[in-house]
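pasting for the record
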Amino acid sequence: MDNYDFNENEKEPNYLMACIVGLITSVLVGFGLAFLGMWTESEYTFVLIFGGLIVSYVIRHFLPKESIAGAIIGAILTPVAYIIYQVYMNKQGYSYGADSEVRFWFILLLSIAMGAGLGYNKDNE
């Protein structure tokens, strides 16, 4: 019992896989959110946040706890899904009311913070 290593369940960091799978997930989530928005002809903030959570959790799967690199990867790839969503929606002719610019920056900054926080992965699962 004295030789038991309490850190043996720590994940080996795989930054390349986090980047590749995170980017693929960001693209899929971005287009998925755009198709959902076009289908329902509306934009739901909680659905956009849920999309960011999906990307963040995929990224954090490949990274250890308290990873600064994970925070950076999350802060970059999580907003990519939202940007893809916005670009595709605009190319399809969908636009929103007068507060669209403020809303865009709010959700973009929220996704950066959420991606960095979940990418850092500070919880004690």
